[in-house]
């Protein structure tokens, strides 16, 4: 198990607790393959994971929190693009493309993530901050030393806007990745 498996938004986890959280996250993805976000409930996920609803609520304050955790785990567990000789633009495009395609094969989950991350639950806000810092770190690394903070912020806004558009159904995540590439290239060149 990775170190992220032993840490949740709310507390440090024992191996048994980490297993329960892993099962809940996997069950949430399974449910989202059959239901949309509106049909997802913590109770349904708990049942699918083989735990009681009270146990699920011990770890997740809401379905938004659960889905945000799933995305955080996917993002933080995904490899960062390898440094390349393709220059700054190529590195930035690789980062944006990797993040955009992270959920491309799971449309139910990707739409749920957009909904979840817009929520006001304090646990979601915490995860949204962690997710933002991870994406910022990846973009900073791709831009290289001495990157213009305004360019970094523009790329963050580009990604956030693209995620929102895709979550609203305005194109697939593959199309999103292509659009991010074109837009980032326009910004950086």
Automatic annotation (TrEMBL):
It comes from the Bacteria. Transmembrane segments: none annotated. Keywords: DNA-binding, Transcription, Transcription regulation. Gene3D superfamilies: Tetracycline Repressor, domain 2. Residues 18-78 form the HTH tetR-type domain. The keyword Transcription regulation applies. InterPro entries: Homeodomain-like_sf, HTH-type_TetR-like_transc_reg, HTH_TetR. Residues 41-60 bind DNA. This is TetR/AcrR family transcriptional regulator. It comes from Rhodococcus kronopolitis.
């Amino acid at each position: 198990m990775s170190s992220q498996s032993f840490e949740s938004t709310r507390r440090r986890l024992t191996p048994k607790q980490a297993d329960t959280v892993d099962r809940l996250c996997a069950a949430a993805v399974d449910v989202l393959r059959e239901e949309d976000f509106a049909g997802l409930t913590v109770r349904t996920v708990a049942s699918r994971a083989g735990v009681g609803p009270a146990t699920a609520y011990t770890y997740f304050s809401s379905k938004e929190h659960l889905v945000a955790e799933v995305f955080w785990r996917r993002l933080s567990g995904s490899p960062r693009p390898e440094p390349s000789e393709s220059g700054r633009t190529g590195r930035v495009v690789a980062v944006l493309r990797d993040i955009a395609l992270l959920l491309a094969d799971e449309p139910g989950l990707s739409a749920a993530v957009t909904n979840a991350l817009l929520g006001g639950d304090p646990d979601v806000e915490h995860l949204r901050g962690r997710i933002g810092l991870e994406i910022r770190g990846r973009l900073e690394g791709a831009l290289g030393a001495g990157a213009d903070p305004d360019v970094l912020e523009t790329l963050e806004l580009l990604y956030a806007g693209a995620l929102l558009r895709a979550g609203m159904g305005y194109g697939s995540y593959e199309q999103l990745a292509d659009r991010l590439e074109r837009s980032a290239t326009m910004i950086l060149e």
